[in-house]
Amino acid sequence: MDGKWMDQRPKGVAETEKITINLGHVDLGHIDLLVKDGFYANRTDFIRTAIRNLADRHADAARHSIMRRGLDLGLRHVTRAELEAVVEAGRMIEIRVLGLASIAMDVPAELARAAIAGITVMGALQASAAVKAALADRIR
């Protein structure tokens, strides 16, 4: 795949993404009971554990889907220098990520538009508002 994977997160990249879910009172009560009885540290710990367990249960199907879709797994950080090199070479890149796609904050919108043909992110995309707006028709 194009680009470089990083072992460390770029500065300013959040460790987690906040989501909101709606639960029925009984389901929430069950979670609170398990937390109160010491099975989980808090509601978030319970929900994270449940999600990981379900993801593990479907790991084989997910692996096949990742390969079929050509997704990079984990963190994909795109730098200004990388995009400048892509444009200089007369190419465009496709960014396909399951995890976090991060476009450096110093990337101008015009450069992103010239270098990135499309973005598919299953997870989160972090980029400046200008870059997101410039690529809005290319984000899937």
TrEMBL record:
<dbReference type="GO" id="GO:0006355">
    <property type="term" value="P:regulation of DNA-templated transcription"/>
</dbReference>
<dbReference type="Pfam" id="PF17723">
    <property type="entry name" value="RHH_8"/>
</dbReference>
<dbReference type="InterPro" id="IPR010985">
    <property type="entry name" value="Ribbon_hlx_hlx"/>
</dbReference>
<dbReference type="InterPro" id="IPR041088">
    <property type="entry name" value="RHH_8"/>
</dbReference>
<protein>
    <submittedName>
        <fullName>CopG family transcriptional regulator</fullName>
    </submittedName>
</protein>
